[in-house]
Amino acid sequence: MxxxxxxxxxxxHHSNEGKNLxxxxxxxxxxxxxxxxxxxxxxxLALLTDALHNLxxxxxxxxxxxxxxxxxxxxxxxxxxxxxxxxxxxxFINASSLILIAIFLIIEAFKRLITDENTFINAKxxxxxxxxxILANGLSVILLHKxxxxxxNIKSAYLHLFTDMLSSIAVLIGGFLILFxxxxxxxxxxTVFIGFYLLFSAWNIFLDSLKILMxxxxxxxxxxxIKSDIEKITEINNIHHVHIWxxxxxxxxxxxxxxxxxxxxxxxxxxxxxxxxxxxxKKYQIEHNTVQFEFESCKDNSLIFNDIRKx
Length: 311
Prior knowledge:
Elements: E1 2-5, H1 11-42, H2 45-70, H3 86-115, H4 123-148, H5 152-181, H6 185-213, H7 223-230, E2 236-246, E3 252-260, H8 266-284, E4 288-294
Parallel strand pairs: 3-4
Antiparallel strand pairs: 1-4, 2-3
């Protein structure tokens, strides 16, 4: 049995993520508090839904912040993978909550459209607080934009903030339309649009994080190609009992049994192992692998095995 791993972590980059998340949390706590107070003063449901949206942001950002800190912890004997899954679990919880909130907002907006609740709304409060929310969320979005590209957890937090900024823009437009034209229904229509956008954006993160948690083979990896590439190595008869899974959105793990053509010494398998690793790293960006060499010992040589007793 031989295993190999390569690591390259950028800790400075990670602490930056944490700092920017923390600033975003503070900004969003402020938005939520102001909007809840403002919604009661102005009588606007749009502000209250925006406040709810922001409250979900605060929760999402706190989860992301804790997960971000946990993922920095070192691996130990009791936690051999460390807390690397923390960020994926956070992304999964975030996306799930976004989906639920979106459905709730859409239902509320439809209720208002059907019942035609055109109660008096103080538009000036709505405009002022929506503008504040746009500025604060805009700042958070700028802070997290760069890091959202390579990290599913930060991406889910970033999406929360971005959709929030959009919904605040919608609330602002609604405020102006109420102020100048008394068009109350525009508020509900915009809420429906924002809700559907929220559903659409959260669904992909929900699926991605679920696939990682279920340890599915990453979608960009073709197992048959890996098999044929490795079996081109002359000393190898076949590979079988393969497992490929993602630990988080960066690290892919690979393990397999390799059936050799000849009964070689362990020292002689080193060069074969190097060839396997070169294929995995260069072609498939798989840097963490475990390879078990065998010579006619497995009864079952199926690529994906289902019966543990056969080997």
